[in-house]
Design brief:
The chain has about 300 residues and is mostly helical. It is elongated. The chain has helices spanning about 1-15, 20-40, 45-50, 50-60, 70-80, 85-100, 100-105, 110-145, 155-180, 185-210, 220-235, 250-260, 265-290. The longest helix is centred in the middle third of the chain and has 34 residues, at about 110-145. The relative contact order is 0.14. The chain is about 75% helix and about 0% strand. It has one domain (about 1-285).
Length: about 300
Amino acid sequence: MMGNLIKAEFRKTLTTKSWWGLMIPAVLFAFLFALIWGFLTNDIADFLGSRDTREITEALGIQAGELPVGLLALGHGVNIGTMFPVIFGVFALAGEYSKKTITTTFLTAPNRVSALTAKMITYIGWGLIYGIVIIAASSLATAITVDSQRLPTASQWLGVLGAGLLATVLSTLFGIGVGAVWNSVVGSVVTLTIWMLIVENVLVFVSFGWLRIEWLGGVLPNGTVNGIVGAIGAEAFGAAGVKVPGLDKETTWFLQYFAGAPGAFSWWASALIFFAWTMIFFVGGWAANQKRDIT
């Protein structure tokens, strides 16, 4: 029975324009951001200064020209791309309420738990699909712009692939949860967009610039989803996880920012914190829809 429900969910999604209508800008933005940051990060040593560059390279045991700056470009490309799986997830349940198809969905399933479980499994699959195309677009742009000796190693590419897929899956589930709680596509999309692209970034900059709170981005939703991939780049520079001795807070924070993960503790900590945010909204939306009127 569950297999039939999952097939129905995939067919239902494929009949809409949202899956490819959001995938196109996801690929374009991921490619463009990675391309821009690829050009910028080639000159990362100039931004850091000779002293900080020397400390980092000596601690990492590499030459200055071999810093894996490609990870920084890759992180920004993937991070901007994950915004679109979030929006896509909103349509999963809130979209059905707006189109009045939720009645059929619930009535053709044995119960609402089965219907929502099938939807969750289906959108995990969609999150993986989005992750593959976003990472591919970001990787292509990074390879085009970053000097060959500064590209990530094979193990680092694989790390970004795994982290990126995890980020896009959790982003999709996060979007489902927010849409389910809010029960409005427009309200959810507008609120999420404003929060994740504007409000949270302002809070992170203000907290660090004025209050010297460098960890705020590591606990807020947008910062934690960005940290899943971005912290891999920050860790490669000794700015997250095990830090390079001698780096001050300002340099560490700006390295994290260049990696797309200001305030991140480590990639796995970011994943756990964002998973908690995802579960808060997903479980909340799940509970709200057990008794919500569908007529």
